[in-house]
Design goal:
The protein contains three helices and nine strands. It is mainly β and 118 residues long. It has a single domain, classed as OB fold (Dihydrolipoamide Acetyltransferase, E2P) (Beta Barrel). The strands form three sheets. The protein has a five-stranded antiparallel sheet. Strands 5-6 form a two-stranded antiparallel sheet. A two-stranded antiparallel ribbon has the order 8-9. β5 and β6 form a beta hairpin.
Amino acid sequence: MSQEMSQELIDIEYFKKIDLRIGVVKEAYKIEGTGLLRLIIDLGNGDVRQIIAGIANWYQPEKLIGRKVVVVANLKPKKIRGYISQGMILAAGCEEGGVPSVLYPDPDIETKPGSKVC
């Protein structure tokens, strides 16, 4: 294990506090003049969230509609460029200079909006 990774270790109880859920992108819009997308995501049971994501340079909004994504559902809301973001979608490759790759559940397995990620 690298020195860098060992400094970031958390225990399982801390990890359990993070509420990861499957959501479905219902609407997606580019926020003009930014690298941001405004996503409207259905987390099931009437829970619909607005999430602002910094992926507009790599993803066309219309291609995300209908896609299932992994959402951090219990992140504190934050105002970004005048919009309230009510969560975060997960992506890999987000380090500086990287290209974010949005994480999707296995398409061959049925997952409903709101399904807990464990």
